[in-house]
Amino acid sequence: MPIHSMTGYGQAVLEQSGFRVSVELKTVNHRFAEFQIRLAKEYAVLDEAIRDVLSHFVARGRCDGFISIESTRARDKQVTVDWALLSELVRVEHEAHARGFELAPVNWLTEMDVLTVEAVQDDVDEVRGVTLMAVRQACENLVFMRAREGERLAADLHQKLVNLEETIQTLTQSSQRTGQKVRARLLERMKELQLNVPEDRLLTEVALLAERSAVDEELVRLSSHVREFYRSLQDGSPVGRRLDFVVQEMHREVNTIASKASDFDISKAVVDAKTVIEQMREQVQNIE
């Protein structure tokens, strides 16, 4: 399964069964799956069904959906008369005449909301099918864009993993020379101080110093994390959280190596490794 970016855009317009439905979807980074649907009030009952469709396509990220539903057929009109109000108005008119008031003829049906004409609301069940179909089409377009962006992210991360493996190799080689460098520095220091130390004592001190700065275990674990990152990329989305965790573990191991480093070559390689891992962390934040 391919890697998907959390950033994407999908659109669809579908005209069917007397309705024209326009759907626009935008997704950005988010820790979880979150949906914000903007839909006309009279179709709010479709919100849950729309979210259910979206959840099958978007496993992680914030998704903003803009859905417009228009009827393309002539709507029937519904006429409503407020009979109670009309009766009261007529009664008042008659009473005014009885009291001697001369009033101009009034058509009460056109006054004070006595009569209202409204378009008959669409049957929600009729529009449900075409709406959900349009949402699916927009989701497919969204997933296509997220997958295409995910390919670029995966290619970039693969290259960064190659760079990190090269740095690990440099660290391994430098670590293997640590004992020799410790011995050379110790002998030089002893020569400066004009000290004469027995060979067995010298070997003991070299071994102790080399053990304190040994990073073999950290390098093994770091290499293991690199392999796990490769496997996760191959598994495909949704894998963003797992990759984020693996990157954190990489950073932890490199920090441990940095705290033990007493060699310039190792310190330099640690800086290179931290730079690559930080770049990976930024990219992982956008993976579903």
From TrEMBL:
Keyword Cell division recorded: no
Q: Which cofactor does it need?
A: a divalent metal cation
Residue ranges that the Swiss-Prot or TrEMBL entry lists as coiled coil: 147-174
Molecular-function annotations in GO: hydrolase activity; RNA endonuclease activity
Keyword S-adenosyl-L-methionine assigned to the entry: answer is: no
InterPro entries assigned: YicC-like_C, YicC-like_N, YicC/YloC-like
Could you tell me which residue ranges the Endoribonuclease YicC-like N-terminal domain spans? 3-154
Sorted alphabetically, the keyword list is: Coiled coil, Endonuclease, Hydrolase, Nuclease
> Residue limits of the Endoribonuclease YicC-like C-terminal domain?
173-288
Protein family (similarity comment): Belongs to the YicC/YloC family.
The name this protein carries in UniProt is: Stress-induced protein
Which organism does this record belong to? Alicyclobacillus ferrooxydans
Recall the taxonomic lineage recorded for the source organism: Bacteria, Bacillati, Bacillota, Bacilli, Bacillales
